[in-house]
From TrEMBL:
CDD domains: dTDP_HR_like_SDR_e. NCBIfam families: rmlD. Its EC number is 1.1.1.133. Pathway: Carbohydrate biosynthesis; dTDP-L-rhamnose biosynthesis. Catalyzes the reduction of dTDP-6-deoxy-L-lyxo-4-hexulose to yield dTDP-L-rhamnose. One of its GO terms (biological process) is dTDP-rhamnose biosynthetic process. Keywords: NADP, Oxidoreductase. It is an enzyme of class 1 (oxidoreductase). Residues 1-276 form the RmlD-like substrate binding domain. InterPro entries: dTDP_dehydrorham_reduct, NAD(P)-bd_dom_sf, RmlD-like-bd. Belongs to the dTDP-4-dehydrorhamnose reductase family. One of its GO terms (molecular function) is dTDP-4-dehydrorhamnose reductase activity. This is dTDP-4-dehydrorhamnose reductase.
């Protein structure tokens, strides 16, 4: 099938290309090739490529930056999704919109299921929730896939930062009262690849299974890599005030995909181990070459 991917240069976008390349014909467009905030450019690209499926992975993902650059966050995450969903509907394509755990406020205190009511705390979360609404309003054959705490090859993500700091011998203070589900972008790409084979449209949670705090996440990274002598200390979130409010407990539970026979993502520790010992190691060799 012909699939158009937006944000193809990002963590998820590049893993979608990795996962879908052998089986599908791809139009993988980076921000330089398609700015989703430009409605005319979106219409032209979709008309030119005539995809049967659109996976919209492009987003403004700087959660704190969005509090400053409000217009930009809404332009990309809300209006950009409007443009993509409308164009998908016009040519009868299936549409996959990737959303976030930050549409929730964290007050539930337990993993969120697909039917739980969103209530975002930040500009980023609100702009992504508008994206969800536009996807469902404008494109009949839509999938909304919420994910969380994403890391992957080449990304400036939590895992990469912890590895760099731990190897440098820096003291690490990580919050131990914020809970989420770390997710390997490669696993999410496989999940999306399975989902789009179905006609079971609607909202799904696509995170690696399980819950941890940032402190536990960092401890596992250091343990798997066997980095010795790291000074890792637990801390409270209120010791690190940030521009954007974040949900204290935004782990995602998958109840929808399992019900339609799509394989859920593996446990987070298994996925992390795979990433650290394959993708991360490959990247290091390449950067030393
Ligand atoms: N990262 C997380 O922890 C996380 C958590 C939950 C949900 N998500 C969602 O998962 C999806 C994938 O995230 P990710 O981690 O792969 O993000 P990412 O690595 O930041 O990739 C996003 C991509 O979108 C591109 N982009 C930004 N503005 C654009 C525009 N106007 N037009 C077209 N492309 C544009 C970026 O290009 P430039 O780099 O050139 O700006 C980047 O390549 C997003 O929908 C995000 O909201 C992410």
């Amino acid at each position: 099938m012909k699939i158009l991917i937006t944000g193809a240069g990002g963590q998820l976008g590049s893993d979608l290309v990795r996962v879908l390349t052998p089986r599908h014909k791809l139009a993988a467009l980076t921000r330089q090739e398609l700015d989703v905030g430009d409605g005319a450019a979106v219409d032209a690209a979709v008309f030119r490529e005539q995809p049967e499926i659109i996976i919209h992975a492009a987003a403004y993902t700087d959660v704190d930056g969005a509090e400053r650059e409000i217009d930009r966050a809404y332009r990309v995450n809300s209006a950009g999704t409007w443009h993509m969903a409308e164009a998908a509907e016009r040519i009868g394509a299936k549409f996959v919109y990737v959303s976030t755990d930050y549409v929730f406020d964290g007050c539930k205190g337990a993993p969120y299921i697909e039917r739980d009511k969103p209530n975002p705390l930040s500009v980023y979360g609100t702009s992504k929730l508008h994206g969800e609404k536009f996807a469902s309003m404008l494109c009949e054959r839509h999938f909304i896939v919420r994910t969380s705490w994403l890391y992957g090859r080449g990304g400036n993500n939590f895992v990469a930062k912890i590895v760099e700091k731990a190897r440098r011998g820096a003291e690490l203070r990580l919050v131990d009262d914020v809970f989420g589900s770390p997710t390997y972008s490669y696993d999410l790409a496989v999940f999306i690849g399975s989902l789009l084979e179905t006609e079971e449209y609607g909202t799904y949670h696509g995170s690696n299974e399980g819950v941890c705090t940032r402190y536990e996440f960092a401890r596992e990274i250091i343990r798997v890599l066997g980095i010795e002598g790291v000074k890792l200390r637990p801390a409270k979130a209120d010791m690190f005030p940030l521009p954007a409010a974040r949900p204290a407990h935004s782990a995602l539970a998958d109840t929808a995909a399992g019900a339609i026979g799509v394989k859920p993502l593996r446990p987070w520790k298994e996925a992390l181990r795979h990433f650290l010992l394959t993708d991360l190691a490959d990247g290091r060799e390449a950067s030393h070459a």
